[in-house]
Amino acid sequence: MEQNPPFDLDALLVFGKVVESRSLSKAALLLGMPKSTVSRKLTKLESDLGIKLLRKNTHQLTVTDLGEKVYSHAVNILTEANGVRALVEGSRQEPQGELKVAIPVFVGIDYASRVGATFLQRYPHSRLDIRLVDNMVDPIKDGFDVVFGTGPLQDSTLIARKVFSLELFLCASPHFVGQLTEPLIDPTQLNSLPFIDFGFAGPHKLTVVNRKRRHELSPQVRARANNFQVCKQYILQGLGIGAMPTQIICTDELRDGSIVPVLPEWRPEALDVHMIYPFELSFSTLISAFYEVACEIIVENTART
């Protein structure tokens, strides 16, 4: 392994701030260093790499195509570097301070409370403010240190670390299945049946997979809720077919037969849940500690079921 990179890692941080703020002056302010130092570090980085990263004139600053690619790699490099820093600092110092966290209601009160209690017991010098939310929030705009969310990131200044995946299965009540005019054998049949939609991320198409085969469906949504418990009650009442987390909140119903799987060879795409936080906090030992607890509790929950 090469001992030293052919450029200054600190200059990558400076470059990243300039790209994000599109201004040398703003980047200098955020970094707490003179504008001349920012300019000198950028010039040195371009010289070390042998490429032009930025175009500057009196009115605006733009990033070259190659500069955009360097920036995307720089974010990953700095994230890993900050991860190492957090690991080292965490071994020297107990996490302390306040953490404000937003957790979607669909993740569950039981999970949120167990993560919170374990975190507070393990780190007595920490303070925790957990808010259960019913819509997607932005950690920067909405004033959170950490949010749990699904789907791709819309902001390159945010970091997303996967906590767990919710494996889903299609199901209905025996009464609903018994009233169908024909047996369910093909996923396209779902397009003409009432569907109970989990709607935390808003309206979306239903994609089901069977090994390498996949179908994108547009079922008739009879009801939508951003909570799996509500969706489960709709399904139990025979109001339609829905997608539920595998054996997490339907364990008893699957055992007593009040909910039955349908099209078992076809499964909705898993719902990945990430812990999202600003890039500036990627070195926080408090956030790293909370992430470890969040992963630990989901493993325990899976084992319990």
Care to describe what's here?
The model has no long low-confidence stretch (mean pLDDT 84). With 305 residues, the chain is α/β, with parallel strands linked by helices. The strands form 4 sheets. It has a 5-stranded mixed sheet with strand order 4-3-5-15-6, with helices on one face. A 5-stranded mixed sheet has the order 11-8-12-7-13. It has a 3-stranded antiparallel sheet with strand order 10-9-14, with no helix packed on it. It is built from 9 helices and 15 strands. The protein folds into 3 domains: 9-87, Winged helix-like DNA-binding domain superfamily/Winged helix DNA-binding domain (Arc Repressor Mutant, subunit A); 95-163 and 271-303, Periplasmic binding protein-like II (D-Maltodextrin-Binding Protein, domain 2); 168-268, D-Maltodextrin-Binding Protein, domain 2 (3-Layer(aba) Sandwich), CATH 3.40.190. α5 (109-122) links the parallel β3 and β4 (126-133). α1 crosses α2, α1 (9-21) packs across α3 and α2 (24-31) crosses α3. It holds the Pfam family HTH_1. This is LysR family transcriptional regulator. One of its GO terms (biological process) is DNA-templated transcription. InterPro entries: LysR-type_TF_proteobact-type, LysR_HTH_N, LysR_subst-bd, WH-like_DNA-bd_sf, WH_DNA-bd_sf.
Order of helices and strands: HHHEEHEHEEEEHEEEEHEHEEEH
Q: Which residue ranges are poorly predicted, with pLDDT under 50 across at least 5 consecutive positions?
A: none
| Major sheet size, sense and barrel closure | 5 strands, mixed
Please indicate the percent range of residues in DSSP E strands (runs of 2 or more): 25-35%
The CATH homologous superfamily of the largest domain corresponds to Periplasmic binding protein-like II
Give me the CATH fold name of the largest domain. Answer: D-Maltodextrin-Binding Protein, domain 2
- The total count of strands amounts to 15
What best-fitting shape do the alpha-carbon axes yield?
A: elongated
CATH domain class name of the largest domain? Alpha Beta
CA-based gyration radius: 24 Å
Q: How far is the N terminus from the C terminus?
A: 44 Å
Secondary structure class reads alpha/beta
Main β-sheet, spatial strand arrangement: 4-3-5-15-6
In the CATH hierarchy, the architecture of the largest domain is: 3-Layer(aba) Sandwich
The total of helices stands at: 9
The overall pLDDT average reads: 84
Protein name: LysR family transcriptional regulator
GO molecular function: DNA-binding transcription factor activity; sequence-specific DNA binding
Domain HTH lysR-type: 7-64
Keywords: DNA-binding, Transcription, Transcription regulation
